[in-house]
Amino acid sequence: MLEELAIILIFAKFFALLARKIKAPEVAGEIVAGLLIGPSLLNLIQTNDFLTDMAEIGVILLMFSAGLETDIGQLKRSGAKATLIATAGVVVPLICGTILYMAFYGFGGWGSENFIRALFIGTILTATSVSITVQALRDMGKLSTEVGMTIMNAAVIDDVLGIIVLTAVISLKDPKANLGIVVLKMVLFFVFAIGVGYIIYQIMKWVDARYPHTRRIPIIGLVLAFGMSYVADRFFGVADITGAYCAGIILSSLDDSAYIERKMDINSYMIFGPIFFVSIGLQTNLKQIDPSVIVFSLAFVAVGMIAKVIGCGLMSRILKYSKDESLKIGVGMMTRGEVALIVSQRGLKAGMMDSQFFTSVILLIIISSIVTPIILKSLYMKTDAKEKAQAAS
Amino acid sequence: MLEELAIILIFAKFFALLARKIKAPEVAGEIVAGLLIGPSLLNLIQTNDFLTDMAEIGVILLMFSAGLETDIGQLKRSGAKATLIATAGVVVPLICGTILYMAFYGFGGWGSENFIRALFIGTILTATSVSITVQALRDMGKLSTEVGMTIMNAAVIDDVLGIIVLTAVISLKDPKANLGIVVLKMVLFFVFAIGVGYIIYQIMKWVDARYPHTRRIPIIGLVLAFGMSYVADRFFGVADITGAYCAGIILSSLDDSAYIERKMDINSYMIFGPIFFVSIGLQTNLKQIDPSVIVFSLAFVAVGMIAKVIGCGLMSRILKYSKDESLKIGVGMMTRGEVALIVSQRGLKAGMMDSQFFTSVILLIIISSIVTPIILKSLYMKTDAKEKAQAAS
């Protein structure tokens, strides 16, 4: 076990740094590390129960952090426009992804297993990961423009919507699932989360006021994350990461939320995060990939990117943004990242997705992360040139 | 798995805080939490492979941190006196512990399994954990006195000696082990550690100078800790924690050693540390304790404490410390802590110790940690009163 950990961590870090050098997301580097040391190539490490459990903790920590980072105030203020853009950016990819899968692997009838698998592929396409876009906008000094803020706000709401879609789709895994009951359980869970969340928030606020910046704060946070994940999965049939995300949101308004997040972050990047991303590489055996999956993957990448541009871009246009701005918003929302992987992982675990499709998701992440900043920059350069020309004339 | 983690972490933290309230070591609180939720009482959690692996990582992190904290400069300066005191403080408890075990469970002949088990009980008694004493001396403003510094220095050397004794004794686990080969392997490992250590230290120094305070520094540190642990155990038959400790010492002179230690510490106290200490409680079933073990435990506590006072005290007296000072040094070295547990854990794993004896070790830690500060304070109060009386007369 110790040698496994040593190998995983050193390869993950090395490839993450390499990825950063070529401006690709570090996560992609870690996955490549997993492909390299896994059954696809060197076969140094095989997945096992221990690594699966560690990766599981990694996902929980990642989603808990995502919840902690949520700015509920901003969510409330960002209002109608961002919500509508986010909704279109979730619905269009969901539908397009579902249709794409059915185009390749058949329909099978409403509610059939095949249909649910198709729905799941659509679900993977819903989650925008905006960090690459934010970085690109920041580099160009365009982050605090209206377009920049709209993208950021829409991405936050996109996260929440994405988790709701995932929760609903995952709950369908039970063959006897009845959509009514599924929705009821989801609603019950959110009611539970709000109720318990309110009580816990009040307690934590009191603890935090008395003992700010003490170790007990992040530890109780972690316990809440693990506890909520367990309760979500065990008693409501809701994805455990939904529980972790809710735990994060509950604590996101604490004075010490940034303190908790920093501690989680260290645990994440030192051990659990790399194990999670590497283990995705380990679970993908490139040698056994079906040729149809390769074709599918390319279509998946194209559809995934275009669907976001269409969904968000059209809605922006409807909301009276200029053609130019609408395109930028659409392109900015194209990037996918960790969350798409987390969602896929859940699907694999629930038996709703074949591990082969990891390849598609990995490709989407790598390509969208590399392409988006390039397109964004060229769009801004064009606008800036136009504005300059107008100013000069 | 998630609910296990939530339960373990919340109980561990609660009992650690409780222990701190009554001035007992937090570690003792965490063990009590394990006894409470384990088979001894509530039976909420049973040990399993996952927890064992997590606890293993916990031990590695603890020993790596201990190595990182080693001040090699101080070690060199502290010189002959502290070394002699530490040596006596290792040898006397080692012999007394061995004899004690044989008094209860028979001799069995030199090199017999029983003899090695007896030797192992002696080994557990060698490791002083000076943090409680340091805290007590600091509270009284006596830490930077000559007695205080002697205790601190002797404790550092005691750690190194303890690990050497452990390494030697653990290597005896192989029934065909030949003392010559055992010593040879140990020497080879230390030669290897020094050689590889020197190269790695130079590389890390270069990395650290170029990229100070970046994430790669603690991650490479962690990889080194896991790697050295693995190599020690796999190729030299040396305890894995010896490898982790050496990894820590190798990096202890880096500019960023404190930075690495801080990151390790967060990983330790958030997850792995509590799991390690709780799992010791989980492995101890108080319901199945043999009555003879209870009597043995009481004797073990008494012998453990007295042997340190005699070993360190007598040697201090020989080195011309006053009777008063010698007694204080002896008493100051009495406390045991994490390291004794780590050693026992290794023994259990190697089949050299029965899990029942955890009770003895736990008792020793709790009692020595509570009693030592009390005795130290009364000794200092007596001296202070005497000095005052002399000054007044």
Keywords:
mainly alpha; 393 residues; homodimer
What does this structure look like?
The structure is a homodimer of 393-residue chains. The first copy, chain A, has 393 residues and is mostly helical. Chain A has 15 helices and no strands. The first copy, chain A, has helices at residues 2-21, 26-37, 49-69, 72-105, 113-124, 131-140, 146-171, 179-210, 216-236, 240-251, 257-283, 291-318, 323-332, 338-349, 358-392. In chain A, helix 3 (49-69) runs antiparallel to helix 11 (257-283). The radius of gyration of chain A is 21 Å and the shape is globular. Chain A binds chain B through residues 1-3, 5-6, 9-10, 13, 17, 49-50, 53, 56-57, 60, 215-216, 218-220, 222-223, 226-227, 229-230, 233-234, 240, 263, 266-267, 269-271, and chain B through 1-3, 5-6, 9-10, 13, 17, 49-50, 53, 56-57, 60, 215-216, 218-220, 222-223, 226-227, 229-230, 233-234, 240, 263, 266-267, 269-271.
What topology does this entry show?
The structure is a homodimer of 393-residue chains.
Chain A: H1 2-21, H2 26-37, H3 49-69, H4 72-105, H5 113-124, H6 131-140, H7 146-171, H8 179-210, H9 216-236, H10 240-251, H11 257-283, H12 291-318, H13 323-332, H14 338-349, H15 358-392
Helix pairs in contact in A: 1-2, 1-11, 2-11, 3-9, 3-10, 3-11, 4-5, 4-7, 4-12, 5-7, 5-14, 6-15, 7-13, 8-9, 8-10, 9-10, 9-11, 12-13, 12-15, 13-15, 14-15
Oligomer: homodimer
Q: Average pLDDT across residues of chain A?
A: 86
The CA-CA distance between the termini of chain A, in Å, is: 69 Å
The assigned structural class of chain A equals: mainly alpha
Radius of gyration of chain A: 21 Å
> Total number of helical segments of chain A?
15
